Amino acid sequence: MRRWLMTIGVILIGIGIVLYIWLGKEIDQGMEPKANGSADYMIILGAKVRPGGVPSLSLKSRLEVAVPYLTKYPHIKVIVSGGQGPDEDRTEASVMQDYLEQHGIDAARIIIEDQSTSTYENLVFSKELLPKETKKITIVSNDFHLKRAKYLAESLDFEVDVLSARTPKSVEAKLRIRERAALLKTYIVGY
Fold first, then answer.
1. DSSP state, residue 109
2. Could you list the residue ranges that cross the membrane (predicted)?
């Protein structure tokens, strides 16, 4: 009996290691194809907002890559997507809107989606704000998050390219582990 339990334990550990490595490779593949200005709409996915409307490091890095891209491609409209969590005093979308406007992006180019509370909702609710014929979009998120975001967007019939924001080193290990679990759940459940 004990030997049987040890064998089962070793097999489960082996499966866990293989899953961990495979999911890590999946996450790394999320950073392609890189955005090139060919999509007319960009969606910046929301992330934590600190008290006083201060973007978290993850959200700030998303905004920092979006501004030069939007400046380079002035024809692109941007959806800032993110609602208000129970521990946030403002919506993620309103914080993103303020940041973009303060960094020279015309308010007429910014579309607000401020009801979503998950990546899937970011995309579903943003889709409702796009012209019906829109198929191609650019998604902006942190590098660790793009594979799942692309997978979900493609399940909604989008063609996706991406703009990858670096994940802050201080939270990278934690977020990459958590994202592996979220990606596995998405592959199994579908959202």
1. G
2. 6-23
- Total residue count of the chain as it appears in this document: 191
How far is Cα 191 from Cα 187, in angstroms, rounded to an integer?
A: 8
Superfamily classification of domain 2-189: HUPs (3.40.50.620)
Question: What is the spatial distance between Cα 49 and Cα 24, in angstroms, rounded to a whole number?
Answer: 27
In angstroms, what is the C-alpha Rg of the chain? 18
Please list the pLDDT of the chain residue by residue as tens digits (191 residues).
788 899 998 999 999 898 888 888 888 888 889 999 999 999 999 999 999 999 999 999 999 999 999 999 999 999 999 999 999 999 999 999 999 999 999 999 999 999 999 999 999 999 999 999 999 999 999 999 999 999 999 999 999 999 999 987 787 788 888 889 888 899 998 88
The domain spans of the chain are 2-189
* Cβ–Cβ under 8 Å, residues 162 and 43: no
What pTM was estimated for this model as a whole? 0.88
